[in-house]
Known about the structure:
Blueprint: H1 4-14, E1 28-30, E2 33-35, E3 41-44, H2 47-50, H3 59-69, H4 84-95, E4 99-103, H5 106-125, E5 133-137, H6 146-150, H7 155-158, E6 168-171, H8 176-182, E7 187-192, H9 208-218, E8 222-226, E9 251-254, E10 266-270, H10 272-275, H11 291-306, H12 309-325, E11 332-338, E12 341-346, H13 354-362, E13 365-366, E14 368-370, E15 374-377, H14 385-398
Parallel strand pairs: 3-13, 5-6, 5-7, 7-8, 8-9
Antiparallel strand pairs: 1-2, 2-3, 4-10, 9-10, 11-12, 12-15, 14-15
Helix pairs in contact: 3-11, 4-11, 8-9, 12-14
Residues 49, 105-107, 110, 141-143, 193, 197, 226, 228-229, 255-256 line the site of pyridoxal-5'-phosphate.
Amino acid sequence: xxxxxxxxxxxxxxxxxxxxxxxxxxxxxxxxxxxxxxxxxxxxxxxxxxxxxxxxxxxxxxxxxxxxxxxxxxxxxxxxxxxxxxxxxxxxxxxxxxxxxxxxxxxxxxxxxxxxxxxxxxxxxxxxxxxxxxxxxxxxxxxxxxxxxxxxxxxxxxxxxxxxxxxxxxxxxxxxxxxxxxxxxxxxxxxxxxxxxxxxxxxxxxxxxxxxxxxxxxxxxxxxxxxxxxxxxxxxxxxxxxxxxxxxxxxxxxxxxxxxxxxxxxxxxxxxxxxxxxxxxxxxxxxxxxxxxxxxxxxxxxxxxxxxxxxxxxxxxxxxxxxxxxxxxxxxxxxxxxxxxxxxxxxxxxxxxxxxxxxxxxxxxxxxxxxxxxxxxxxxxxxxxxxxxxxxxxxxxxxx
Length: 400
Ligand SMILES: *Cc1c(COP(=O)(O)O)cnc(C)c1O
């Protein structure tokens, strides 16, 4: 078997350098643990940016994939397949919604939601064609396609990629008054993350989402929550928006953990009134709704419910947050989050989170810095409590 060093060299030689990985090669993985080619074990506290809520190779999800591999993998939507309908029904019910439009990656689902909002704006709200506006928040992260980076506020994501797609207005995150001021008669939707993950696990003020949603209702503007990272139990609720009582989006965008850590599958979930606007040929994806991904997603949803992973995230997350907040260190600015989704924000003087992540890696714990100064802690929701305790002790040691 090639060594860690050989694999890193080959990767750096032949792969575009669009990532800056920690120098660790994962050769084997199970639950919350991963192993490198030399046999050293690490606790995974990134969980593939929350695509791994079920942990690595969850036995039930793997069995569902194996069963489907033996049966039928891809049909395209030119024909029906017997997994797609049940998947749509079960996902819609899981989300308390009526209809599903399946795609593959998160960015594609966001693009789909943007198309849906514009279509609704022209067909239902009667916005003049070509004028639809969508309000988004500063420091958003919704993916990497040209349209999606068009409304990013992060220069790194945009430089050299112009020209961009028009039709987006950016407002500060967490400021309901600024949001209300930005609405015009052409506004069709508000697209927002209930907690901003890539921005550094930024939790908005209590009541912010509900206040903006109320403004949306009054102005006939769709509320679209991007729960690609925060969904499926990550924050201690099925979906993060449920932390605010009585709140519900018009459009829910999901991805990542829907694929059980096995396959990419994403979706836009909404009412019949909204998703019923799509007509044959207006939108599509060759792999969207493929039976293999649908079988995996169906089992992933069942596992979340039957293994109580949402409640587990709430319970273990409370412990993680409390224990990390108890660490007193002059370079820690703030520890914030919900459920097993926690950001430790370092002060500027700390010189960035990267070096801290590298030291944690040396100590057998994998975390990734986000936005320079934040260490994100987001382990698989299946993590054993004793492994969580072990991780907490490693972070304590890091700041000792
Ligand atoms: C990861 C992510 C996306 C993009 O998903 P991809 O599958 O990488 O395209 C979009 N929105 C949020 C909030 C995300 O965390």
